[in-house]
Description:
Radius of gyration: 25 Å
Strand content: 25-35%
Strand order of the largest sheet: 3-2-4-13-5-11
Number of strands: 13
Distance between the termini: 22 Å
Transmembrane segments: 44-61
CATH superfamily of the largest domain: Calcium-transporting ATPase, cytoplasmic transduction domain A
Domain P-type ATPase N-terminal: 5-70
Domain P-type ATPase A: 99-162
Keywords: Membrane, Transmembrane, Transmembrane helix
CATH architecture of the largest domain: Distorted Sandwich
Protein name: Phospholipid-transporting ATPase 2-like
Shape: elongated
Number of helices: 6
Helix content: 25-40%
Number of domains: 2
Amino acid sequence: MKRYVYIDDDDLSNNVYCDNRISNRKYTVWNFLPKNLWEQFSRFMNQYFLLIACLQLWSLITPVNPASTWGPLIFIFAVSATKEAWDDYNRYLSDKKANEKEVWVVRKGTRKHIQAQDICVGNIVWLRENDEVPCDLVLIGTSDPQGLCYVETAALDGETDLKTRVVASACMGIDSELLHKIKGVIECPIPDKDIRRFDANMRLFPPFLDNDVCPLTIKNTILQSCYLRNTEWACGVAVYTGKFSYEEEIE
Length: 251
């Protein structure tokens, strides 16, 4: 299956796909207790100790005081639930920080400051050196005359060596002052877990190119949670956002 991303066109692509809000939380306020209990009782040992505790409620079966089993069992469950709640709260804070981070985007030919969670598919996103990439982008411009930029991908693959990325050939040589005026369409596959493959095509509309097809590979992309390094600035078209980004897929 294919998805069609129309560059900086609110009517054709931005409202079709999800926004860039991310959520790594396991629980909500309403489902925490039942979901956590289900997860704890899905473990065989917890089921075993629960069975023993229930049997001790009948004095005909055992003379042991049920409190001697129920007390430690409830304590262990409470400690485990508290730890899960604390970890989930920290995930919430991390998500909130990422969602509310401010980024520069181009919408309807105008650059504006918005929160990362409000990025839509098709928006042109501008990055500065050492910025974290807020969503998956197809690279259309950099400060390098040869159209190169360098990204740190340790958050995705654990590799600390910088990777080289290159501007799509259709956008090579376009002046930085004209990048916010680009119009076109990117035909790309639906996102999957393979972060080393991206087979897509780009067509720019006149006056930039007259619908010539430009092939795209993973070398033309910078993915969410990577960092821009040793490059003054770079910009790209948002193709996968939120839960459909590569980082969310591999999690």
